[in-house]
Amino acid sequence: MKYVADMHTHTLASGHAYNTINEMIRAASEKKLEIIGITEHAPAMPGSTNVYYFQNLNILEREKYGIEVRYGAELNIIDLKGTTDLDPRSYRDLDYCIASLHTTCLVPGTKKENTYALLQAMQHPKVRIIGHPDDGHFPTDYEALIKEAKAQDVLIELNNASFNPRGFRIQAYENDIQILKLCVKYGVEIMLGSDAHREEDVGDFTRTEKILKEVDFPEELIVNCSLSYVKNRLRV
Ligand SMILES: [Zn+2]
Ligand SMILES: [Zn+2]
Fold it and tell me: Exposed (0-12), middle (13-18) or buried (19+): which is 203, by Cβ within 10 Å?
């Protein structure tokens, strides 16, 4: 399968990633992607950038090295009410946002509490994607999550980095099997994300392929297959 978009990547600004914006775009262009999304960690992530960085992103061109570029943020869910960490002034001009749970920004609650936080975050006006909801550190009611994703028109991410054996997430594989089956059941679309923190990983979805095959996941529910579909679904 050819994927044309990678809408979850990080640069030096995130504090624990290692390439510049230009290097990430060039890598995407060399890998024949048609669009890349740069989504730095919002400020609650230790070591990440500040609100002015996000406020100023609108000065950057949305086309470079022959491909399209969009600028967003990976918002941190910072409490069990689903509050995220950018103020309206700072997310107003962003193209889109991902909302994610990270143990560095929130102590996990009960399954019910984590699920509530995710459902609330989906109501954020810029959130189009729930990032890596497969992390077993945050037990989640996946049936409730997927049904709400359908209702709120939010995409569920299948994150290539979740399957990195040296990564920080746990039980991702078992959880993703469950998530993908529910997406099929309810007709909810997914977005593949590399979550690249270095240029070599841009557009790399090789780890997700195996699990997609395993559940025989239908191609028409994978947004990354078409540029117009990506732009349409992210409203960018
Ligand atoms: Zn993340
Ligand atoms: Zn990320």
Answer: buried
User: pLDDT for 48-93, tens place per residue?
Assistant: 999 999 999 999 999 999 999 999 999 999 999 999 999 999 999 9
pLDDT for the residue 1 = 79
Ligand 1 midpoint to CA 117 (Å): 15
**Ligand 1 geometric centre to CA of 148 (Å):** 20
Which residues make up the environment of ion ligand 2, defined by Cβ < 5 Å? 74, 195
Q: 42: CA distance to ligand 2 center in Å? A: 10
**Ligand found nearest the CA of 102:** 1
Determine the CATH number of domain 5-234: 3.20.20.140
